[in-house]
Amino acid sequence: MDTRDPGYFLGLDDTWCAHNYHPLPVVVASAEGAWVTDVAGHRYLDMLAGYSALNFGHRHPDLIAATIEQLGRVTLTSRAFHHDQLGLFCQELAELTGTDMVLPMNSGAEAVESAIKVARKWAYRVKGVPENRAQIITAGGNFHGRTISIVSFSDDPVATADYGPFTPGFVAVKYGDAEALQSAISADTAAVLLEPIQGEAGVLVPPPGYLAEVRRLCDEHDVLLIADEIQSGLGRTGELLALDHDGVRADLYTLGKALGGGILPVSAVVGRRDVLGVLTPGSHGSTFGGNPLSCAVGRAVVALLRTGEMQQRARELGAHLHARLGELVGHGVAEVRGRGLWAGVELSPEIGLGRPVSEELARRGVLVKETHDTTLRFAPPLVITRDEVDTAVDTLAAVLQEIRG
Ligand SMILES: *Cc1c(COP(=O)(O)O)cnc(C)c1O
Fold first, then answer.
1. Where in the chain is the domain with CATH 3.40.640.10?
2. 74-306: what fold?
3. Does ligand 1 lie within 6 Å of residue 230's CB atom?
4. Could you tell me the distance, in angstroms and rounded to a whole number, from the CA of residue 112 to the centre of ligand 1?
5. Is 107 in the pocket of ligand 1 (CB under 6 A)?
6. Gap between the Cα atoms of 317 and 140, Å rounded
7. What's the pLDDT tens digit per position in 1-11?
8. Under CATH, which number does the domain 28-59+309-404 receive?
């Protein structure tokens, strides 16, 4: 056993862990800010940031301090009792997001499941949809998590194969097409569930005006708009919420990933009081949702976002990242999409698959991950510096140059 040999750990993972991921062969042992160090002592620039779970970088000092302080007090009560972090967390998150109420959960998928339950209950209790008829409209290419109900409206064959029978009550329409959405709305429609920018699909930004038109259609037909901002929210795009770029408000937002500061799984549904208010004691719950430690970490995350500094970094450095990546179009890159410190880099056909590119980038000390075969996703921590952005893009340019010969 050589604990400085990555191969040792790759072997353990291969033998003992279910094979539901295909990670790059990098074995991280420690991390700080935008950098991780592997077991052999090699350093890597983390340009993925846990798919936005690490928006504030690894081990942000404010978040670590809040965690340690809460560890010295109380970590879990269950919701059978009150505790002194829950109400403050909910108030601070609601005020930050300009919403009325917060339902704390743990994983992103749980937040989405919870929003679906709330929307259905609202449809029956408030809108007056006949029992068991509520429909939720989703978008093609969506990613909202991995539960049975959520994969029931996924159109990714890898995510759905062999998992049927699926949950009914969902209709899918083409993402970015407001007319398709309008045609799908019926008297039984409870909600439209959308990512304002589709992350897993390859950082797809919908056409201008689309999200405002979705909002208008929802208002016209008494349908809830649920924005899944688990990946797009909390600073990533240069605004607190991706919908803010369009001046659009959702009725419910799902938040997750960065809400836990890269420390714990913390998620939430936030939104209108008359919608979340349909929940009554016993009708929904979670043992760990809203626990003191999660709330303390969540409050520290809210405090980091309240100053707007992180959003500003994402805006300014994001503009730089997009400008630099844009220079590679025609040099191994077909297209760059995204907003803020979030970019989907579509590789040219001459480059081939993204996997060997991300493997070569890792060998050169830059961590990104391919999504779908030919897209590389860049989502660095918002604490990254301009020089570090340049390092990552220069390394990508060199790798693409070498492949093109
Ligand atoms: C990651 C993600 C989820 C699921 O979050 P988990 O914490 O992995 O369950 C849901 N929606 C979006 C948009 C995501 O990016």
1. 74-306
2. Aspartate Aminotransferase; domain 2 (3.40.640)
3. yes
4. 8
5. yes
6. 30
7. 899 999 999 99
8. 3.90.1150.10
